[in-house]
Amino acid sequence: MVSVTRLLTGKLKLVVNAQKGRVARINDCVFLGFTFRGTKLRWSDAPFADFRYQIRKLTGRSWGVEMAYRLDKLAQYVRGWMAYFGISDYYRPIPELDQWIRRRVRMCYWKQWRYVRTKVRNLLALGTSKRQAILTAFSSKRYWHLSRTLATQTGMTNDWLQRQGLISVRDLWMKAHGYA
Q1: Whether residue 17 is found in the same domain as residue 35
Q2: Which residue range(s) make up the domain with 14?
């Protein structure tokens, strides 16, 4: 630390704050929410945990707002997060994150429909088979479990969710990296 401080103050004429400054390997440092793993730029763990927390808040079952408003706020937050952290080279969690967000939105729709009759009517209107719609609507399982059933996934398809206003994290990442 002493030799680095001498270089910065003597040769470069910079002021060094010894309380905040440190000398460490680049893999151990976090700067503005980013870290390096080898030659790859990644977001650090804390901003990613905060992102997941905010998505949980925006797709919470007890937030009693219209789905259009919820999807608008969700899109606004995801676009902002990806505008900042989209430069990261870390692709591995992106498809899983996209699936998780879609499942949470399906869960919100399922909670919003509330009554068995409404669930059956909406699933049938979305193209789910009558048998699957009835079996799923009468199920005593909770919202999170039912958001991954055949009936909800054949009714509330990815295309349907996209038409409702849900944006894809994967598409935003691909666009940021010039793939789309």
Answers
A1: no
A2: 1-29
Q: Are 24 and 74 found together in one domain?
A: no
Residues 108 and 20 in one domain: no
Give the number of domains in the chain: 2
- What are 105-154's pLDDT values in tens digits? 999 999 999 999 999 999 999 999 999 999 999 999 999 999 999 999 99
pLDDT tens-digit profile of 13-62?
888 887 877 777 777 788 888 888 888 889 999 999 999 999 999 999 88
SS (H, E, C) the chain: CHHHHHHHHHHCCCCCCCCCCCCCCHHHCCECCEEEECCEEEECHHHHHHHHHHHHHHCCCCCCCCHHHHHHHHHHHHHHHHHHHCCCCCCCHHHHHHHHHHHHHHHHHHHHHCCHHHHHHHHHHCCCCHHHHHHHHCCCCCHHHHCCCHHHHHHCCHHHHHHHCCCCHHHHHHHHCCCC
Q: Are residues 138 and 153 in the same domain?
A: yes
Residue 90 has phi, psi (to 5 degrees) of -85, 105
Could you tell me the pTM of the whole model?
0.85
**Same domain as 37, residue 76:** yes
